[in-house]
């Protein structure tokens, strides 16, 4: 193990039993394929159907793209490690994994905040919606989301990998998890990482506060709607988003803010799955299950007439 971890780390995943490793790899593979299919469907539908070219679905498309990238950072590597019965990950791979994991997680929090503001403007200020959420403002918001995530990932990666490590380079997780890596740091050598983590946590708390305030105003406006059908329509677009935000932030917050322990428990692995694997898999289902526009667009794309029209359109393009 000393030779293996001289230039990298050893990821200790779910079990050392070979049968359980194969089971873990199969379960993760099925979950990954489901997440891949669901998020690609949302990206395809919101791109091809012109009726879904609105700010809400524009942000949903970028959330699906983030989810697709987010789950691809950790799960394929974990599947490969389990199948090969080898938890080794090189230093370069670990650096890239930490960077993209933090960057995409931060971007996801930011895009969820933007989506909540979009719902607030649509419901509470409908007459000004097209002016406030014009295409230019939406593009700038998405650019800001990706840039903010990249900067957050860059800060964490630069600080985290400048800390001297003491002892064996064994990470009790199925990916290069920052809280687990801090346990390997020499005493009192990770003060810079704590400062960066405090800044990131403060930013996430401001995003959460913004989301909560947006939904307080949304629900107060919805309760004043006299029509039960109108209230149902609003809740069908807001409740899925609120569920996604609550699930993702509560699981991630529990993992990152709780006091560190010297021993790894099943609870640590369970909560890491809750914010790394489950949200990207469930988001497509949550956002499309009660959304009639999404289901109608999916039926239209899968219909024979639509398929024939797109086939003829592609043939005409290739002839040109």
TrEMBL record:
It is found in: Cell membrane. It comes from the Eukaryota. Keywords: Cell membrane, G-protein coupled receptor, Membrane, Olfaction, Receptor, Sensory transduction, Transducer, Transmembrane, Transmembrane helix. Residues 38-287 form the G-protein coupled receptors family 1 profile domain. It is a multi-pass membrane protein. The keyword Cell membrane applies. Gene3D superfamilies: Rhodopsin 7-helix transmembrane proteins. InterPro entries: GPCR_Rhodpsn, GPCR_Rhodpsn_7TM, Olfact_rcpt, Olfactory_GPCR. One of its GO terms (cellular component) is plasma membrane. Its main location: membrane. The chain crosses the membrane at residues 25-45, 57-75, 95-115, 136-155, 194-216, 237-257, 269-289. GO terms for molecular function: G protein-coupled receptor activity; olfactory receptor activity. Belongs to the G-protein coupled receptor 1 family. PANTHER family: OLFACTORY RECEPTOR. Putative odorant or sperm cell receptor. Odorant receptor. This is Olfactory receptor. It comes from Ovis aries (Sheep).
